[in-house]
Design goal:
Length: 304
């Protein structure tokens, strides 16, 4: 029951990540249908593959959900925004962050909670849990520094939003390998993850998909980056499986296979599910509700 309760938190956070991509334009009723069906049809099979099924049987490594949670949610988020469409006025209309103090508070809470998320995946208070905790701290800090450095170089300013985004990018990247790598690898994962996710977020304007909170760019690409680098940096003495740097080049290919299977399965099933919901009840609110704001038009609430 402890294991069930722990994994229940994983199941609850994964669709919560997806929700950020569809902010400001999706019907709550459609979302209420999408979440449980997606959990059963996509999240549960992929999570089973990763921890008990053929991914695990092939030797793919995912300590705390880099593939099962972050890659899975990122791909689902991309499918959702492609079916749902852009927010009205995006990208020509500037849509800045609404409340930076709340963003920073939320980022801090996430960082704190992530220690339990990653270290707890060891299933015990042991050396692997401590290693995962340390890697989580290092990657988040390095991701923050890396993202802000690129911001400063490209735009002349390091921002609070960039700090929060880089931190989460580092966390998403280290989630999969948290209990399998050691030394200063956490810093490498954070720096690389922050740079890759910054680049990925910039692609949405080029390709024209409106991912409101950059779920695909941060969580999707963070999950991919972490999974690939796990195949390079995994340490046999920590997690039991060596990576490329310890002479096991095949681990990179195993990681790639798991990444590819997750992307294909999640993208196809999520897309079909969304199309069915859209045909039956519609996914998107009408123009008046969107302009008014969903807090008020759907829920009768206002922000004071």
């Amino acid at each position: 029951l402890i294991f069930v309760a722990f994994l229940m938190t994983f199941a609850s956070i994964t669709p919560a990540l997806i929700s950020g991509a569809a902010a400001d334009r999706m019907k709550f009723s459609a979302w209420a249908i999408f979440v449980p069906v997606w959990l059963l049809a996509v999240y549960c099979p992929v999570t089973y593959w990763v921890y008990n099924g053929w991914h695990a049987g092939n030797g793919a490594l995912d300590f705390a959900g880099g593939t099962a949670i972050h890659l899975n949610s990122g791909v689902a988020a991309l499918a959702l925004v492609l079916v749902l469409g852009k927010r009205r006025g995006w990208p020509s209309e500037v849509m800045p962050s609404h409340n930076m103090p709340m963003i920073m508070l939320g980022a801090g809470i996430l960082w704190f909670g992530w220690f339990g998320f990653n270290a707890g995946s060891a299933g015990a208070a042991n050396g692997q849990a401590v290693q995962a905790l340390l890697n989580t701290f290092l990657a988040a800090a390095a991701g923050m520094v890396g993202w802000m450095a690129i911001e400063k170089i490209k735009g002349g300013h390091a921002t609070s939003l960039g700090a929060a985004s880089g931190m989460i990018a580092g966390l998403a990247t280290i989630t999969g390998p948290a209990g399998y790598v050691g030394g200063m690898a956490g810093v490498v994962f954070g720096l690389v993850g922050g740079a890759v996710c910054y680049w990925a977020v910039s692609l949405k304007n080029r390709f024209g998909y409106d991912d409101s909170l950059d779920v695909f760019g941060v969580h999707g690409l963070g999950g991919i980056t972490g999974a690939l680098l796990t195949g390079v940096f995994a340490v046999e003495a920590i997690g039991g499986t060596p990576g490329l740097l310890e002479g096991n080049a095949g681990q990179v290919l195993i990681q790639l296979e798991g990444i590819g299977a997750t992307i294909v399965y999640c993208a196809i099933v999520t897309f079909v599910l969304l199309k069915i919901i859209d045909a039956v009840m519609g996914l998107r609110v009408d123009e008046e509700e969107e302009v008014t704001g969903l807090d008020y038009s759907l829920h009768g609430e206002t922000v004071q």
